[in-house]
Structures are given as C-alpha cells and as structure tokens.
Amino acid sequence: MTQYSGRDAEIALEQKHVDVVYARVEQMRAEAAAMRDRGDELAHGARNEAVFEQASMLFERDVMVRHANQILRVLDAEHEGLVFGRLDSVDGETMHVGRLGVRDEHFDNLVTDWRAPAAAPFYQATAEQPMDVVRRRVIRSSGQSVVDIDDDLLMPGQEPPGMTVVGDGALMAALNRSRGDTMRDIVATIQKEQDVAIRAPWRGVTEITGGPGTGKTAVALHRVAYLLYSERKRMGGAGVLVIGPSTAFTSYISRVLPSMGEDTVELRSLADVPDGIEATLPDLARAAALKGSLRMRRLLKRAIRAAPIDAPKQLRITYRGEVLTLDARELAAIRRAVHATGRPPNRSRVDAALAVLEALWRKADGYAVEGGTARPDRDSMITELGDRIEFHRWLVTWWLVRTPEQVLRDMGDRAALTEIVGRTMPKADVDVLADSWARDGFSVADVALLDELRILLGEPPKRRRRRADAVDAVIANAELRTWAERQERPARHRPDNYDEYSHVVVDEAQDLSPMQWRMVGRRGRYASWTVVGDPVQSSWPDPAEAEAARQAAFGPNATYRRFTLRTNYRNSSEIFALAAKVVRNVATPDQLPDAVRESGIEPSVRVVAAESLRSTVVAATVEMLSEVDGTVGVIGATARTPELISWLAEADHDRLRVVDGLTAKGLEYDGVVLVEPDELVTESSTGPRTLYVALTRATARLTVLTTNPAWPD
Ligand SMILES: Nc1ncnc2c1ncn2[C@@H]1O[C@H](COP(=O)(O)OP(=O)(O)OP(=O)(O)O)[C@@H](O)[C@H]1O
Question: Where is the UvrD-like helicase ATP-binding domain (predicted)?
Fold first, then answer.
C-alpha cells in the first residue's frame, strides 16, 4: 500500500544518492585536473613532434576536460542542487535527473542530464499519458543537502508495494518563493507545454508567444541550454546570441544559463547589439517612433550622399598657367555620379578623386580647343594633379571618410537635415529629429541607425595593423590552447560586429522596431532563431511594418514553428484580473493567459490627492517593503521616474527598484507600487499596453496610487 508519509525517511534516501553523486564529481574533478596537466605536456610535445597518437589523446582529453569544466561551472554557479528529480517507472527502474549527466566509474548513470531524451518523461509524463512513470519526484536542495521532496503519482494503483508519495506541489512551492534580483532556472518544474517548445528542433524560426508571466523568457533560455546540449557542435562554435530589451533585463537573466553549466552564450541588450556604441540618452516617443521606422533607411541613404556640412563648395586649381574651377553645381553632379556607382562612400574616395580630375581635364581640354592651344594629355594631367598635396588636402575635406556617428551628428543640423529630407517628411518631424541628433550622445533607437550607417558607409580603408596588435592577437589565441577551450570561449575573441551566430534568441520581440529588426537580422544571417514575445505588451506603434521587417530578418526561405504558452505563473489571479481590465480594448480574450495561482490578496487601488502623492508613495513603498521578503518595484511613467527616485531616496533599500514601464519589461518583483497609471497611458500611443506591462510585474502584491477617482474605468 502507498504510504503518504515518511518524508524524512525519503529525504534521507535521496540524500544518500546525492552524496554518492557529489563524491563522484569530486573524483572527476581530480581526474580532469590530472588529465589537463598531462594534456598540457602532450600539447607542447605534439607541437614539435606531430605524433598522431598524441593528437587523438589530446582530443580525448579535450572532451573530458570540457565535461569536467562544465561540471565545475555548474558547481560554482548559484542554483538549488545538481540533482533535482527522480523518475520511478512501472518496471521498477529508477532514474535521477539533474543539471548535467554524471556516470560512475563503471559508466552507469548516476544522474541523467535533464536535456537528454531519456529525461523527457520527467517533463512530459502526465496522469493521462504517464509514459510508464509511476512516480515523479522533485528534489529540492540547498547546496549539497536535500531539504525537501515533492511527488506526483502518475499511475495510481500501479505503484510497487511500500512506495512513499510525499509533498504538495513542487510548482506551487517554486512559484510562491520570493524573488531576488536575478531570475532562477526552472529545470525542476518545467511544464509540459513549455517542454515542447524547449525541445523543438533547432532549424528555422521557433516563435513562442504567450501573455505575461507564461515563462517565455525562462523557456527561451532553457531552450538555449537544450540546443547547446543536443547540437553542441553546430551551436557551440559559431555561438549563440540572446538579445533582450535592456541591460536591466540581461542582468536579470544572466544567472540562468550558468546555473545549467552554459556560460558561453552572449547576452546583449538591444542597445549593445553593435560593438562600440554607447546609448545614454532617452528619446521622446515621437522621435523613437520616427527613428525606428523603415523610412529611416531612405533618409540615411540620402544623408550619406549629401555633401558633408563643411565640405568646400568649389575647387580652384592651376594647371600650366590656367586657373581651373569646379563650382558647387558641378561638384554636386560629380558627387551624384560617384554615389550612383553604388559603392559605399568610405570606399569610394579614389573613384571620387578620379571623377574630379577627369572633370578638370575635360575643362582644360575644352579651353584648349576654344583657344586653339595644345590639348592637354589626359593621363599625365590626371597623374600630375592627383599627386599634388593641395589637391589631396582639398579632396579629404570634400570627400570625407566619415564614421556613422559623424553622419548622425551632421543630421542634428536643422538646415542640413531639412535639405536631406527634401519633401519626404513634415517640418515638425524634422525638428524633432534634428533636436534629438543635436544632443551630445545617442539613444537606443539611434543605435540601430548607426549600425545601418556602418553598412551604408562601408568600412574605411584599413590602416596597416600595428605589429604590437598582431602580436597581442597571436598571444591571445595561443592562450586558448585546446580545441575544447576554443569552442568554449570564442565570444571574447570574436571580431567586432560578428555576424555568424548559429542561433539567435530575441526576447520581448514585440518591441523591436523595423530598424532594430534589420540590425538584429544582420547578426543572424546564417542562424536559426528563437523569437519570444507577446503582441499585447507591444510598445511599437506600427506592428505591420515591424512584422514585415521581422520576416525579412529571418530570410525569405525561413520555416516557422509556433508555440503558445497559456498559463501565467507569475501573477496571482487577483493581480492579473486587474491587469486584464486595462487591455480589454486592445487584446482578444485568447491573447490573455490564465493566472492559476490564487493568493487571496486583492491588489490595493488608492485614490490620492495630488498634493499628498509624494508622502503616499513613500509610505506605500515602505509598507510594501515590510509586506514582502523579495524585491519591490516602484513603477511610474518615464517622465515621472526621476522625481520618484528623488522621493524615494530616503526609503533607500537594497530590495527597492524604481523603474519606468518600458524598463520594467521582462522583469518581476514580489511587490509593485504603481504610481499614476494614467500617465503611463498618455505618455505614448501604445500607453495601455505599457500599463499592462507595469501591472503584470508583481508576483504577490500590487498597490496602485492614482489621483483619478475613476481609475481603472
Ligand atoms: N515551469 C515553471 N516552474 C517554475 N517557475 C516558472 C515556470 N514557468 C515560469 N515560471 C516563473 O514565472 C515567472 C515568469 O516567467 P518569465 O519571466 O519567463 O515569463 P514571460 O512570459 O517571459 O513574462 P513577460 O512576458 O511578462 O516578460 C518567472 O519567475 C519564472 O521563473
């Protein structure tokens, strides 16, 4: 008969197995170190002697060292235990599931990697389809100590005599735990609908949609770990790139992959996708909308073809006693003709020089014909003038080799921008753009434009590399001595603007502007994709244009597979009910997830007099900090956040974060204090969606402070 008790005895039993696993891992650690030392000897020997046998031993060592390194990384990372699950099947077999596979010295499995096909029933078995699993056990540890277990009986009545079943829901226990500054992995409690998306084949485009808190980010990251496991060769070398909306977000998710032993994945925020650009300034909603739209492509093309602001308006040069002049109109025609070749301007200076010299020769030739004097020889004239230092000086200012930053700066000049734009844009928009580009610094939306300009302008001709740089590069490479090390740490040694990733993940994909899709698409020209998002949370005003740009980024032949996640694991059902109200006009019912966790705590909506807003915000924040153990987010409109930060300076607390609705994307807090929700709505054309984002950040408690007595109706 099943015993629904004996928790302590079962914990002790699991502890025994966990002890065996850790002892084995220690042994492997020592073996790996010895192997690495021996391998070093071999590596040095092999360089001189080129013995094949040694090469094959090196390879073996590589494989072993890589596995050992991965184990060590998992041990070093913060997580809740190497072994987290166990399956008992109907035929009496048992299997432990963990972050990594570990075998004993006889090659028998002590732990099966959660990503291995054999471990799939841990996530996929249900009471309806038990896949021969009688009991599924989640083992919760703290360090190397088992602290709790939780069982599901999937084939009631078929369990062997004496099988003990304990616990009351590992998932609910995981969801009710308080949140810290970084996201945790969910390996122990991945749900079936999530598992299917995680294990989907690597090819093509995998799109995962779902409402807030449905685990899209968690699933995307676990999918990366899965792909690195199942397709390590394909994925590992060329690299995997994960793109999130902000650095707050990338730092929030930064610990999930290392906790599964994967630390080679590049996490970048949208502002950091291109190398070497720093975005420090915000944009007005109108400026961001303009800068993100595909219209910018045309504008930037016109900008790189326009004469640089300080370009000389004429050329005067003396040849054999005759003064030759090219005026502004003639120079503009030459500039147009050179651009018409389609070569990037930074690569066209020689063409430009030749075109100008040709024009000068033609002029001199015309004068000679008119005056009946000897006609100049074309080639010698071009060579002589082209060698003159004064011509060279003139040329480098007339045909400037420009950086993307310089071009965008030049567009901050209203008159210059007006000329570039012509009649393609209303004056009010030109003013908005010119004002924003006249500032000292760039915004996130500018980053995609700078990346576009990088391509349009072309690489400037290369200066010869300093010898010291070349030597450094060789040394850096030599330091990564083994194949395994080179596979594992390519990120640091990739060239700037590397574009050969094998897989690219885009999180919060609903927010990418068309220009950002172009920037991201450039990095994934040879990649397969995982794209996660929720259209209802979109803050991009023109979804149709973004969709077209998104498809273009994936390429014309992309194949798609789509998954929808439907359960909201973050919010209590009480909190989500309020959030669902504010998007009722912009979302269809099937776009809203089910929040299954009832907490019995209703969100608190408080109407406040404007003059007491400050004191109420401070009091509500202090109250929230005392009510929850984890993080507290105070969220307001972008324009209000500086004020909120100053108000809350006195409530300074290491669990407190003050953010605007856009920065809150993808993040979560145990408690949220939302200030003046109407301001989030009026701040941009997609305001209701931003408010929905803000309202869906809280796991446990939500307080809304508003001066509008009718809110939310
Ligand atoms: N199977 C699971 N087991 C335990 N926790 C889970 C599970 N699935 C999701 N969660 C938790 O639910 C929360 C929300 O997950 P996540 O942030 O991935 O959702 P999301 O769909 O990306 O949300 P949003 O659209 O709001 O950014 C996280 O704390 C995550 O760890």
Answer: 189-572
